[in-house]
Structures are given as C-alpha cells and as structure tokens.
Amino acid sequence: MAGLFISYRREDSAGHAGRLFDRLTQHFGKERVFMDVSDIEPGVDFVEAIDVAVGSCAVLVVVIGRNWLTCTDSAGRRRLDDANDFIRLETATALRRNVRVIPVLVQGAAMPKSADLPEDITTLSRRQAIELSDTRWDTDVGQLAKTLETILREVVPRAIDSRDRERPRGESSRRDPKAIVGSAVGILLIGLALAAWFLWPRGVEVPRVAGTPLDVAKALLEERGVTVGTVSEEQVESAAPGTILRQKPAGGLRVEKGEKVDLVVAAADPRISVPDVVKESLANALTILKKAGLGVGKRDFKSTDEATPGTVLSQNPRPGDRLEEGKGVDLVVAGKAKIAVPNIVQGLMPWAGSELQKAGLAIGNVREKNIADARPGTILSQNPPAGRQVDKGTRIDLVVAAAVTAKARLTVPSVVRLDFAQARMTLEAAELVVGDVKEREAEKARPGTVLSQSPAAGQEVDKGTKVDLVVVAQASQKPEIGQVGQGDYDEVQQIYLVHRSRVDCLEVKRLVERLAGFYSNNNLVPENKRYTVMFPTTKKLPTIADLARDRVTRIQAAKKGCFRS
Length: 565
Fold this sequence. Notes:
CATH class of the largest domain: Alpha Beta
Number of domains: 6
Strand content: 15-25%
CATH topology of the largest domain: Rossmann fold
CATH superfamily of the largest domain: Toll/interleukin-1 receptor homology (TIR) domain
C-alpha cells in the first residue's frame, strides 16, 4: 500500500513534524505514514536503507523550517553540503525516483532558491509548497490531507496497472500452490492482528509536542486525553521563548488516559537583543542604544569617502546578538577623509599652489624671508610638514624666499671748504652721517674749515654711509692774562658754533683751555647738566677778575673736558 514519508531536521522543525505526523496518522492510518529512518540497524548501508524507505512511498513531505537551509554541523559546515546528509539523501532519492515531493513550510520559512541548494536537489525549488501556520494549523493540515488523498488515489491504480501489464499472459488463470499458502498465511496474520487489537491494553498515544508553543502543546495533550505535568524552563538560544524543547513521556508512546506529560519550555532570554544601528548617524545610534537599555563601548573613527562623516559603519556585537543590560556596543564611525600633505619645499609658488589644489588642500599664510642664495618665490618651509594626515581643505602655511630689491644709492655731496657746521648739515640733508673727524694745521684756512672728505664727492654710496672729514686745527696758543679783547669775543662766537655742531671733543677742549677765563655766570650757565653758551648783552667784556669768581664753571669745565649738548 502506497504511503507517505515525512522528512525533517530535528534541530529545525522536530515539533512541527511531530504534530504533522500525528494528524496524518489519524487521517491515513499509522501503517501508511513513515517519519524516521534513524532506527537503521548497525552494519546496514544507510544510503540503501533510505533508498528503499523513500522508494516505497508515493509522497515525500519535506518539512522546511527557518533553519532547514542553514543548519551546520559541529565543524561549522552546512549540513546540506554534506553528500551523506540524511535530509539531502531522502530528497535526492525521491526526486531521482520521481516520487511526488511536497515542500511544507513552517515557522514562516521561505522556499529555498535553487542557487542555495546542492546540485542533486536543485529541482526542489520548483516544487509547489504548502505553508502550515500555527494559527491556522487545523485548516492548513486539512488542506494538505486532501491533497495527499488525491495523490494516493492516483498512485495506487497506476501501481496495480503496472503490475498487471508486467504479468505474463495466462498467468491469472493458473493458481500457484505457493500463492494459495501465502494467502492463507495472510489471512491468519490478519486474524492475529484483529485479536491483538481487541486484547491489547487500552490507552492513548502521547502526541509529539516538541517544537510547538506551550499553549498549543497543552491543547494537543488534552485532546489525546493526557494532562500537562511539570513545566520547567531552560534557557537556549536556538528556540523561541515558550517553545517546547522536550517532553516526558516521549511522543508516540502509549500511556494510560489522564497520564501526566512533563514539559521543558524554552525560557525567555533576560539579555537584550542588540539593535541594528549601522548606517545611522552617531547621534541616532546613541539614542537607539539608550532606549534599548544598552550603552556605547569603544568609538573608532575611520576615514572614508563612501559615507557621510558621523555615520556608523559597523558595530560589535552584531544586530540580534544579546547583551546584558547596560553593556556597551562598539561602533566604527565614518570620519572625514584624511589627506597626506605633499612635499612642496624647494618648489616655486605657482607649482606649489597647483599641487596643493590637486591634493584637496589650500595655501594658508605666506611669509617672505630674505635668503641671498635662494631664487625668489622658492618654498623654504611648510606647515603642516609633508606626509602628515590632515582633513580635506586644510590650509598649508608657507615660508617663501623674498624677491631681492636693490638698495637705494646716494651721491656724496662736496663739503670741502665748508665750515664744519655747514658740512654736517649738508651731509645730514643727503641722508649721510659724519664719520671720523681729524685735525690738520693750515696757515691760510679758517679753523674748522673742511680740507678733505672720504668718500669723495660724486661717489655712489648706500644710505647712512659715514663720511670722514679732515678740518683745519685751531691755534694752540694760550691767551695772555689781562683784559679780553674783541678777538677773544670772536673766539666765543666760534666756540658757540663749534658747540652747537658737536665738534670733536679734543677741538672743544683746546678752545676751553684758551678761553676758560672768558666765561662768567652771564655767559656759561649750568642747566640740567648741559652747557649753553650765552652772548653778553653789552659790548663790555668781563675781566679776568670777574671770571675768577665763577669757580663752579671752571671746575665743571675741567671735569667734563669738553662741552656736550
């Protein structure tokens, strides 16, 4: 009799497969519904055993949950990629032998794509699937049962017809003695089965509730006449909270009606599911994590042009992982793209500006520096230096060799034969200064007259150059003691002129020695440690006796040794 084979993964959909098995056995009978080949005896080729088991059925029902496609083994390899995986072998055998394959989707799973399946079962993705929802379980399973009835009605006549065509002509009219004996044995077995049915102890079969929500499991158990015993919780990550993990007694066993079935339920994880903050701004990410009861761990900034600065690029732990309340999530945030400063030292300004612009930088402050052996406009230094990582648009300060400018050249004027005071004023007017002043005796020249100069008149010199002078020396004879005459008065005028023009100290000292007795309080007055020559208000000149009274003046003059302004 053609039957049904249910293929499922224990770690993916054991609970839903058990519920489906119970309903289909109620509808079609337990002898027509097969569920496992896990009881293969030792030493038996499991590939051949699966081939026989699947090949003897008319329909293969493949129960596909959320993890059916991605389940891995202890080494982390996907189970479907293993050629000896039971689920892959069952499905491949059914497809190869043209057994009707019906994918049944549970837990809201999606139909696998052909690209995600091994080559020998890629055609599974083209089979029409049936979805079984927990909220519409009875309705959906009823629809599946109707579909299976239709398939089984079509398969059985075809199988009988196939056997009739293969039977040799005339065989049906002859009766084989062995066939008669076989029929008798069959009748005897049927009688024994009926006797066993009536004589077997009464009880109920425990439904398989592993993988179902707790409320659904209670309803199934009560429907079979058993009650819920102890319900304990166990924290696991692979099952949704409230899902039945294990039951005792196990599903499929027969127990007395009213027997208690203990259940182990997946407990709710007290840890917090990490929200997804990738592609959020840093401010939004902080808000999202705070609302979830989490904080921020390390914050690393990565320079990139692929995201707006301040955008979260990655996070650790990943979204969906669980953390204890208050724990931090590490974030990698997009920062401004950094640029390596190019080396522009020793380059010229136009080229340096072009290089900085190409790099996304700009010229900052430019300071000139006089360098004798550098070409004007040459970059002498830069800040920040070459190689430093900076933000785009950063301004680079430069020190540039200044352009060489020629100094202003002046023509030396002629001061020969000028009085010393006039010579000084002439040189200062020409932006030159008096240098060394030397005396030389000259009989026919007036004392203080310039005899020569160096540099000579007409030469080109720099501004502020010193011009050395040779002037006529004063007569060295001392005045006789007695009445000072008009000539001495003229000497006083000469002293005044020399004093005003700041003549060399030696020359003034000699004049003071000659005319020391000429001064009086009316003529030489101390004033803030400065000496100012005063002319008499009358033509009457003082006598030596008058000058003798002014001791202070003479003492001060002797100490100073010269007049200074």
